[in-house]
């Protein structure tokens, strides 16, 4: 029986990557591949996290094995986790990489796991070049990339970016559709639940709101007379990681 260990955020951490890892682990187990997750005791120091909380405020723990063992800024935990993984002897580990800040932690774990073992390291790359760039990003990403055997990219753009860092095998597999948010309901039911007019057209902008995601451009587009004539309503659903007043000022400016 094949066995893998996924390394990355998982429940009770919130966000798309944690949701993805939980669903991926379950999917492996459902296919008869023994899978578990090693997550973080500390993902980000508080001063690096702009949101309200890093944790889910409700919801049930998924029926998978999740161990919270990694402190992203404590190297002692990195080597301890690597030792544990080697003892468990998985066929491969799958590491989620989305931010250069995580490169020392994840790259060191990967290197330590591979030393004197046959365990393969597969990296699922969300971003190799971050949206919000900082000094040292390239050096950190190179450190992580060199520790991996194979890569999975979920967009063509990330695959192209990754080719600037490595000539190792890259598998392109588009981001799947989540199946973890309950049963699908009809458009009419959804409109009713949200209190929206079924005669209007709607655009949904959802998720964490950060400058690089372009909500300001969408608001500007909504002010276009051609768009206004289409009777389109914009729903913005998500937590602000930036100053919300900036966006409220744009709404007022464009009278939308």
Topology:
Layout: E1 3-7, H1 16-30, E2 34-42, E3 66-71, H2 75-88, E4 92-97, H3 103-114, E5 120-125, H4 137-145, E6 150-153, H5 156-162, E7 170-172, H6 187-194, E8 201-206, H7 215-222, H8 225-228, E9 232-237, H9 244-254
Parallel strand pairs: 1-2, 1-4, 2-3, 4-5, 5-6, 6-7, 8-9
Helix pairs in contact: 2-3, 3-4, 7-9
Task: Tell me what you see in this structure.
- By secondary structure, the chain is an alpha/beta fold.
- It is about 35% helix and about 20% strand.
- The chain has nine helices and nine strands.
- The strands form two sheets. It has a seven-stranded parallel β-sheet, sandwiched between helices.
- Helix 2 runs parallel beside helix 3 (about 105-115) and helix 3 (about 105-115) runs parallel beside helix 4.
- The N and C termini lie far apart (about 55 Å).
- The mean pLDDT is about 90.
Instruction: Name the strands of the widest sheet in spatial order.
Output: 3-2-1-4-5-6-7
Helix content: 25-40%
Number of helices: 9
Q: Which range does the strand content fall in?
A: 15-25%
- The secondary structure category is alpha/beta
Number of strands: 9
**Largest beta-sheet characterization:** 7 strands, parallel
Poorly predicted ranges: none
- Quick one: overall form? globular
User: How far is it from the N-terminal to the C-terminal residue, by CA?
Assistant: 57 Å
Task: Give the topology string: H per helix, E per strand.
Answer: EHEEHEHEHEHEHEHHEH
Roughly how many Å is the radius of gyration?
A: 21 Å
The average pLDDT value, as a whole number, equals: 91
């Amino acid at each position: 029986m094949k066995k893998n260990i996924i390394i990355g955020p998982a429940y009770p951490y919130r966000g798309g990557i944690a949701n993805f890892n939980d669903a991926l682990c379950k999917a492996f187990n459902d296919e008869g591949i023994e899978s578990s997750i090693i997550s973080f005791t500390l993902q980000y120091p508080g001063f690096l996290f702009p949101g309200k909380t890093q944790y889910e405020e409700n919801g049930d723990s998924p029926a998978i094995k999740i161990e919270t063992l990694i402190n992203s800024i404590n190297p002692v935990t990195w080597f301890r986790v690597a030792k544990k993984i080697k003892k468990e002897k998985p066929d491969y580990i799958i590491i989620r990489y989305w931010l250069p800040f995580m490169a020392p932690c994840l790259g060191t774990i990967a290197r330590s796991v591979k030393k004197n073992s046959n365990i393969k390291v597969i990296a699922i790359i969300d971003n190799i070049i971050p949206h919000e760039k900082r000094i040292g990003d390239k050096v950190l990403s190179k450190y992580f990339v060199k520790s991996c055997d194979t890569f999975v990219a979920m967009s063509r753009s990330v695959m192209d970016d990754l080719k600037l860092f490595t000539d190792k095998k890259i598998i392109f597999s588009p981001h799947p559709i989540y199946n973890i948010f309950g049963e699908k309901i009809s458009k009419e039911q959804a409109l009713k639940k949200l209190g929206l007019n079924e005669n209007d057209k709607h655009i949904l902008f959802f998720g964490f709101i950060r400058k690089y995601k372009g909500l300001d451009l969408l608001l500007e587009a909504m002010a276009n007379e051609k768009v206004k004539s289409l009777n389109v309503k914009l729903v913005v659903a998500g937590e602000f990681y930036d100053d919300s007043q900036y966006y409220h000022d744009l709404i007022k400016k464009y009278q939308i």
